[in-house]
Amino acid sequence: MEKMHLKMTVNGEEMETLAEPRELLIHVLRERLNITGPHIGCETSHCGACTIDMDGKSVKSCTVFAAQAGGADITTIEGLGNPDNLHVLQEMFKEHHGLQCGFCTPGMITRAYRLLQEIPDPTEEEVRFGMSGNLCRCTGYQNIVKAIMAAATEMNATKEAAQ
Amino acid sequence: MIPAAFNYHRPDTIEGAVKLINEFGDEARVVAGGHSLIPMMKLRMTGLSHLVDLQGIGGLKGISVDGDTITIGAMTTQHELIVHKQLSSRAPIIAEAALQIADPQVRYVGTIGGNVANGDPGNDMPGLMQCLDAIYSLQGPSGQRSVPARTFYEAAYFTEREEDEILTSISFQATGGGYAYEKQKRKIGDYATAAAGVLIEKDGDKCSAASIALTNLADTPIYCEAAVAALVGTALDPGDVGAAVKAAVDASDPSEDNRGPIEFKKHIAGVVIRCAIERAIERA
Lengths: 163, 284
Ligand SMILES: Cc1cc2nc3c(=O)[nH]c(=O)nc-3n(C[C@H](O)[C@H](O)[C@H](O)COP(=O)(O)OP(=O)(O)OC[C@H]3O[C@@H](n4cnc5c(N)ncnc54)[C@H](O)[C@@H]3O)c2cc1C
Ligand code: FES
Ligand code: FES
Prior knowledge:
The complex is a heterodimer.
Chain A: E1 4-10, E2 13-19, H1 25-32, E3 51-54, E4 57-60, E5 73-75, H2 77-80, H3 88-95, H4 105-118, H5 124-130, H6 142-162
Parallel strand pairs in A: 1-5
Antiparallel strand pairs in A: 1-2, 3-4, 3-5
Helix pairs in contact in A: 3-6
Chain B: E1 7-9, H1 14-24, E2 28-31, H2 37-42, E3 50-53, E4 63-66, E5 69-73, H3 78-83, H4 85-90, H5 93-98, H6 104-109, H7 112-117, H8 125-131, E6 135-140, E7 143-148, H9 149-152, E8 153-155, E9 158-159, E10 166-173, E11 178-184, E12 194-203, E13 206-215, E14 222-223, H10 225-231, H11 238-251, H12 262-283
Parallel strand pairs in B: 1-3, 2-3
Antiparallel strand pairs in B: 4-5, 5-10, 6-7, 6-10, 8-9, 11-12, 12-13, 13-14
Helix pairs in contact in B: 10-11, 11-12
One FE2/S2 (inorganic) cluster binds at residues 40-43, 45-50, 60, 62 of chain A.
């Protein structure tokens, strides 16, 4: 099958690649664009490890064809922070032991980022419900929830200080 | 999990999309959110060589409220239904049901049109639309027609929609009275073991109107006429509710699968139908 010329914005950068329409977005990100933050856990739309932020929505990139993402604005964990300048969520996952093996973490943090954009001051219940598309086999979720609550508090304090 | 190869199209008008599916016949399929279709394509259970993406068609999006008539464009996502304030005040059962579908990521992309057109008995919106007595608008090469949700479903994955028709919008009347969508599932993100949508209106102490429909308790959603007849005109006493629950369970026809044997499903059906009726009465 003929390849398509795809353009998308990933982490603020315009990117172009050739891909078959049937290629999954997660494969194009990881294998063609070398963006390996989003992981492949199940490849069947269940685990959330492949979660990216696409046009302001948390999306499982294993359930999107690359062709559908043509023209999209995508943010992955790489776009949220880096080792020298961690995002508050990354800081808080570290601080509160919100990860063990770390496999689910890029998806968790990318989803939590969008959740906090929509609900800046969530209750624990709202965090648990809002994170219910992401599975973790290690932590038992307790510390993931704590880390997200702490990040919300931190982000709100920074916002207030700036006002 | 790589699907078979296909050609990709992204038309920007309804007419353009209809033309493509008409031209390619059963080799073409439309894709909305893709969250039912792509998993099937990955399993290679759906053979197609042309995928027609509806995301570029502005005319398929949005929610409008005109007097008591609510119209929802097919490409409106479950997330958009949940956060729409006017929809939640005029037909709160929609958000209550949508919040019980899948998980947040799926709700951001899954559309109402895809959910009702899919024909999977596990989908929650078809039962909900039968409960609301919604009308589906379909557009094909020879024009537009309307089909009630209550007669749209023929068997699992078989509907009234012709292969070269696109479901463009769904409309129904705003609800008064009480409502409830109750769903039993094994975990978040699972399809229903059994689910029921209920609407109840009261005039004084009497039930003046009602609607009851079931999800995943047969090959198609079920509108429960006998259960409705058991409630309308009564004072909604426990005996009346019991008779309606029994009539609705009798109308169900579940089959055994990994969610349990038939006896179990009928038992769970009884529980969710009763919960839904009681909650709707409390809110009426
Ligand atoms: C993990 C997971 C859990 C889920 N849990 C639930 C659940 O609990 N309850 C539930 O109801 N659903 C559930 N779903 C399904 C989800 O809600 C789907 O998004 C929805 O069923 C289909 O909507 P879509 O927009 O993704 O449609 P698509 O997958 O794009 O399309 C589905 C079918 O409908 C056809 N179609 C789509 N739009 C139109 C149109 N406008 N006109 C004509 N034909 C059209 C397509 O050709 C295709 O055959 C789940 C999905 C996943 C991945
Ligand atoms: S890899 Fe996409 S949901 Fe698991
Ligand atoms: S930390 Fe190991 S899967 Fe979540």
